[in-house]
């Protein structure tokens, strides 16, 4: 029970210190009296619904992805087995198609660039897509309610495209406008600093790429954000009830843990990219020579791929938990990625492996890559399920798409896509199911549903024909 000294706390309350401000997670003291439901548009009655779009490149081994039966998710297929602890909040959706990802003699470039846009990319080395991507359509409305309108996160840089297509399509799924991709954030150190060092809210400029505030940010985070706000935190803790005090303590512990991991990764410029992309990039070309991949500076980036992904997803979880943003996209690697995964005994290129030619050895290696990505995703979902937000968890208050613009990397087909939806969408989405749609149902129908659950009233997006039948209870 909360203390009567603090009758109600504003959702926008922050802890303040010298030059820093730290947003708080959802607390019982933030709930309006005599109300218990969540509001899709993010009103004060309850936690808002957050939306995210996760992308995996080069397709998957569909035989190890697709559940055998329609209906209840009982025995999960190999790639999805790590979802077992949270499968009641997961819906696998089959037979979705992205016809807008089809291109002229190229499978990867238009798949990446068009996936969230819902329209075809221009066949040009100067990037141009059909319009704003679904996450940025949402950002124009609900993004103005948060300090950061949206996040576009990734792990790997991209390279030049092929067949007359811009390489920008490979490494950007989020687009603010037809010609402006959302800047991709890959460095946990700079991301953490931008989100949790008091970056002020701003109205986004949709005509050009966002420029993240520089301010007088220190080059090191050795002076912890928590040290700066310590006195304010102690004062707040004295006013909160037991449950809220515990939530704040757990949140601040998590924040401190992320800082320590970033500091450990900040000791040198080594990057896991140096080993993962050691193979000549020309091997990933479909007919033309490619330049050397630009390897990012490793300061602030963990030396192991999985640690890098986990750190980025932990920061994203904190951003959702504190309502710093309600919208995000995430790339496990760029489309057509030539990354190797020696940690799961795949020392060759991911892209080359995806051209499996039905060879069992290649299919086994592809399954191991797909499984690793899913395990990292599942870890984030489990963490979200452990974060309390009133009567529900953070996982209950998100709606996250996980999928790809290519189904079988050997065929480069854009139908029968590997897609699942995780989270409870504010208590409205029932998981634990395999939903089999009609053949070639547009994936944009799912995008319409996600926009609506996030609080954006819309009837059409891209090549949608309506909403996704059967996703929500009648």
Low-confidence stretches: 1-5, 34-44, 199-222
Number of strands: 14
With helices defined by DSSP (H or I, 4 residues minimum), what is the helix count? Answer: 12
| Proportion of helical residues | 25-40%
Q: What is the structural class?
A: alpha/beta
Mean pLDDT across the residues is 84
Based on the coordinates given, report the CATH architecture of the domain at 42-188 and 320-454.
3-Layer(aba) Sandwich
Shape call? globular
Cα separation of the termini = 36 Å
Q: Strand order across the biggest sheet?
A: 4-14-5-13-12-3-9-6
Using the CA coordinates, give the radius of gyration: 22 Å
Highest CATH level, the class of the domain at 42-188 and 320-454? Alpha Beta
Task: From the 3D structure, determine the CATH topology of the domain at 42-188 and 320-454.
Answer: Alkaline Phosphatase, subunit A
Report the portion of residues in β strands. Answer: 5-15%
Provide the succession of SSEs. EEEEEHHEHEEHHHHHHEHHEEEEEH
Query: What is the makeup of the main sheet?
Result: 8 strands, mixed
């Amino acid at each position: 029970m909360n203390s009567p000294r603090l009758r109600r706390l504003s959702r926008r309350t922050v802890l303040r210190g010298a030059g820093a401000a730290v947003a708080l997670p959802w607390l019982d003291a933030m709930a309006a009296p005599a109300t218990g439901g969540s509001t899709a548009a993010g009103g004060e009655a309850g936690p808002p619904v957050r939306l995210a779009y996760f992308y995996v490149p080069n397709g998957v081994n569909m035989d190890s992805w697709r559940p055998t039966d329609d209906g209840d998710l009982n025995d999960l297929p190999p790639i999805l087995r790590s979802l077992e602890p949270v499968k009641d909040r997961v819906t696998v959706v089959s037979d979705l198609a992205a016809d807008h990802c089809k291109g002229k003699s190229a499978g990867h470039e238009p798949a990446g660039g068009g996936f969230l846009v819902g329209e075809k990319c221009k066949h040009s080395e100067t990037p141009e897509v059909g319009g704003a991507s679904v996450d940025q359509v949402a950002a124009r409305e609900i993004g103005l309610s948060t300090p950061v309108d949206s996040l576009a996160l990734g792990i790997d840089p991209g390279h030049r495209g092929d067949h007359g297509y811009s390489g920008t399509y490979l490494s950007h799924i989020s687009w603010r406008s037809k010609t402006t991709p959302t800047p991709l954030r890959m460095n946990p150190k700079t991301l953490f600093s931008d989100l949790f060092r008091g970056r002020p809210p701003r109205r986004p400029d949709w005509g050009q790429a966002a420029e993240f505030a520089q301010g007088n940010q220190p080059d090191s985070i050795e002076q912890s954000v928590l040290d700066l706000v310590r006195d304010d935190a102690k004062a707040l803790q004295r006013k909160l009830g037991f449950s809220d005090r515990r939530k704040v303590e757990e949140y601040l512990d998590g924040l401190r843990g992320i800082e320590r991991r970033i500091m450990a990764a900040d000791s040198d410029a080594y990057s896991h990219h140096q080993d993962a992309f050691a193979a000549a990039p020309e091997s990933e070309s479909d007919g033309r020579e490619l330049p050397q991949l630009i390897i990012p500076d490793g300061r602030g980036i963990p030396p192991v791929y999985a640690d890098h992904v986990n750190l980025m997803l932990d920061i994203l979880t904190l951003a959702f938990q504190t309502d710093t943003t309600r919208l995000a996209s995430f790339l496990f690697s760029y489309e057509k990625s030539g990354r190797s995964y020696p940690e799961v005994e795949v020392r060759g290129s991911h892209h080359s492996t995806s051209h499996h030619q039905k060879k069992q050895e290649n299919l086994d290696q592809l399954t191991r890559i797909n499984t690793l990505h899913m395990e990292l995703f599942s870890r984030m979902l489990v963490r979200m399920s452990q974060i309390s937000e009133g009567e529900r968890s953070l996982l209950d208050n998100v709606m996250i798409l996980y999928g790809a613009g290519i189904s079988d990397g050997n065929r480069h087909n854009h139908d029968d896509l590997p897609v699942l939806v995780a989270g409870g969408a504010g208590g409205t989405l029932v998981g634990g199911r395999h939903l089999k749609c009609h053949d070639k149902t547009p994936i944009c129908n799912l995008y319409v549903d996600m926009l609506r659950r996030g609080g954006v009233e819309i009837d059409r997006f891209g090549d949608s024909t309506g909403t996704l039948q059967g996703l929500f209870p009648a």
